[in-house]
Amino acid sequence: MAEIHVERLHKAFGEFAAVRESTFTIPDGDFFCLLGPSGCGKTTTLRMIAGLELPTSGRILLGGEDVTFKQASRRDIAFVFQLFALYPHMNVRSNIAYPLRCQGTPRAEVQRRVEEAARILRITHLLDRAVSGLSSGDRQRIALGRAIVREPAAFMLDEPLGALDAEFRDLMCDELRALHDRLHATTVYVTHDQLEAMAMADTIALMNDGVVEQLGPPQEIYDRPASMFAAGFIGSPPMNFIPFHGRLNPGDKSVRVGDAAVEIPEAREGAPEADLVLGARPEHVRLSATSLLRASVVDAEYLGTNQIVTLTTSQGTLVKARVPSDVKVQPGETTGLDFRPEKLSLFQAASGRVLRSALHERVAHG
């Protein structure tokens, strides 16, 4: 079992808290992404799980064993980092075999594991080549091979695709996920790129300012963000935020935004009269000639089968709508905005926290 359990993990550097009271469980065989902006604490969290950094407080269990203060070398974990750190004087075979030789693994077993890793990574034809002169994609595969041969309980990957260009990143995203599916090994993957996380992860821990802001499958975080931060960080373009002032009572099925009554999922949680925020994904925004919520077209970005139309409301709020490309719009023209009511979120402006509604009940009941 390679289940990883993190309990109230805290890391402070002097007065600065890099990670604050994080608790989560990574199931055995899960592809788990630590996602967030630079400085949010994701790499520090990974380094504590790996044993490269000691926590200030909290516990880390690997396969049920408390490894909180064990050295990295005593944890059954393999690492892949953004910088490949290959040995230039060794060929591909020797680079991959290096950790096994350091452990004194018998020669026949080394050969078997190296060839098996090369087969999985489709680099058998490179085994006797020098690493210099190889493409970034091939060098990343070699770094992965060096981790795979150890047959660890878990893999730790820290921004492993950060040094690759966009084309290679897309390719390696597909290959890393396929590799994970073949090995069924627990994988902890750090990235700031939400597209990587959405494409590969079984579970995402979205971090902000040292705190796990939301934990769940990619689709759940996308459809039901727990906060304005989660809603704004996940999605391309991100969720639209339309501020308004009002009161919300449990059972309400609409709110008033300007002159328009906007239908929403039935509210399960109320809020006293205050500044609130309506959240709508671009694909849930529709252009409607009859809607009382008026907006002016700023521009349109053609994307083939659809387009991203940017509009500004009469209150000056920018809104992006993903609509079919055959919908004709012109900069400067005025239209109305309509929404898919069952997909909308409401947030408290002051805290950024989501207000629970019928939208959230659907995740509990499937």
The biggest sheet, with number of strands, parallel, antiparallel or mixed sense and barrel status, is: 6 strands, mixed
Low-confidence stretches: none
Number of strands: 20
Strand percentage, roughly?
A: 25-35%
Q: From N to C, what is the helix and strand string?
A: EEEHEEEHHHEHEHEEHHEEEEEEEEEEH
Assign an overall shape.
elongated
Distance between the termini: 28 Å
Count of alpha/pi helices: 9
Let me know the average pLDDT: 91
Instruction: Classify the helix fraction into a percent range.
Output: 25-40%
- How big is the Rg? 24 Å
Structural class: alpha+beta
Strand order of the largest sheet: 6-7-8-3-9-10
Architecture overview:
With 366 residues, the protein is an alpha+beta fold. The strands form five sheets. The chain has a six-stranded mixed beta sheet, sandwiched between helices. A five-stranded antiparallel beta sheet has the order 15-19-16-17-18, with no helix packed on it. The chain has a four-stranded antiparallel beta sheet with strand order 2-1-4-5, covered by helices on one side. It has helices spanning 42-50, 92-102, 107-121, 136-148, 166-183, 194-200, 218-223, 228-233, 358-365; strands spanning 4-13, 16-26, 31-35, 57-62, 65-66, 77-81, 154-158, 186-191, 203-208, 211-216, 240-248, 254-257, 260-263, 271-280, 285-288, 294-302, 306-313, 318-324, 334-339, 345-348. The chain is elongated and about 75 Å long. The chain has nine helices and 20 strands. A hairpin with a 2-residue loop joins strand 12 and strand 13. Helix 2 (92-102) runs parallel beside helix 4 and helix 3 (107-121) packs across helix 4.
